[in-house]
Amino acid sequence: MSDDIIRDLGLLCLGTRLKRLGERLQGETLGMIDEADLTIQPNQCPVIVALHRLGPLSIGELVGTLGISQPAVTRTVGLLTEQGLVEIKRSTEDQRRREVHLTAEGDSFARRADTHLWPVIEAAVTELCTDLKGPLLRQLAEIEDRLDALPLRDHLTAKKEAKAR
Amino acid sequence: MSDDIIRDLGLLCLGTRLKRLGERLQGETLGMIDEADLTIQPNQCPVIVALHRLGPLSIGELVGTLGISQPAVTRTVGLLTEQGLVEIKRSTEDQRRREVHLTAEGDSFARRADTHLWPVIEAAVTELCTDLKGPLLRQLAEIEDRLDALPLRDHLTAKKEAKAR
DNA sequence: CTCCATTACATAACATGTTATATAACATGT
DNA sequence: ACATGTTATATAACATGTTATGTAATGGAG
Questions:
Q1: What does DSSP assign to residue A64?
Q2: Spatial distance from the CA of A160 to the C1' of C16 (Å)
Q3: Mean pLDDT, consecutive 10-residue segments, chain A of 165 residues?
Q4: Does A130 touch chain B (CB under 8 A)?
Q5: Secondary structure E strands in B28-162
Q6: Closest nucleotide to B92 by C1' from CA
Q7: What's the pTM value of the predicted model, to 2 decimals?
Q8: What span, in angstroms and rounded, lies between the C-alpha atoms of A147 and A21?
Q9: What residue in B sits closest to A117 (Cα-Cα)?
Q10: A64 touches chain B (CB under 8 A)
Q11: Residue B83 pLDDT more than 80?
Q12: Three-state SS for A101?
């Protein structure tokens, strides 16, 4: 028995467990975003990436590719609009559709993130998940333990140092 | 390339992915709670279980065992208090501590859930996670696919029917 | 026995998710 | 053309998480 009841409850609390770990990872990611001198929230990243890779998308198309609810997309797009990273144009054929485009600033942001931020995050998470094996709960526990031992942003450096020896 | 960019981005979006799946599972769980004629939110369940298994706990102790922030615990406890499931007593020795106790109604709720709800949820999630193997992302994708094919609450019945053949 | 650091909790401000529902634009059958 | 069903978004109400910070109770140091 650990002192973590969510962990002890196993599959009964899988949803809670996944959510908790996801939020923890996003929180650690936010720190890495700050270090890259970029200003964005973790949840907004997938929207920018989607628009950068797939081109302008309507709200509904974003809902489909992001896998979250339409109101969540509407709000996130609204926030990104306020930040000047995207702009909304009414579709010419169908006046109901709102097409979300990256602005010049948004595109610039996406390019910088593509070269300076995403690779760093992906490498750190990859390192965090190195050699995970076994049942889902086992792997989740291992990730939690590794994060307890070392914050996400330090996993990359840790690996490099280990190799340097 | 699927039409799910979070999935396509792999480890880069692991946090977002875990959170999304966790929320999905909690959402499906909520449906099962309703079916059991119980009224509670998914996130409140671990608090009830913790108090039922470990006895009265302070806010700080709940923070420790639930692994979430103190303000989150404070609010959840406040909501459970409004619902009459728990009550708060000031500790006699240390006037700063607030001890959270299950009320008679809360205890009754915990007992009912212990026999009628938790086993059902755990069995459904266990069935959902049957024979998962491989890397973390592979297992997550498999869970998502299985949920797409069949809502969580139907996984138990599905298993029983499969066995009956 | 005061003064101050620490501890435990509350509160504010914000980030996000969801479901339910309103609204406007399209599409259609008669 | 018109009434009506469908689709695409917007909005409301609510559930939760976080960080930052305020406040009261403890507990030591001088």
A1: H
A2: 35
A3: 87 94 91 82 93 94 94 95 92 88 93 91 92 92 91 74 51
A4: no
A5: 57-58, 86-90, 98-102
A6: D25
A7: 0.87
A8: 10
A9: B12
A10: yes
A11: yes
A12: strand
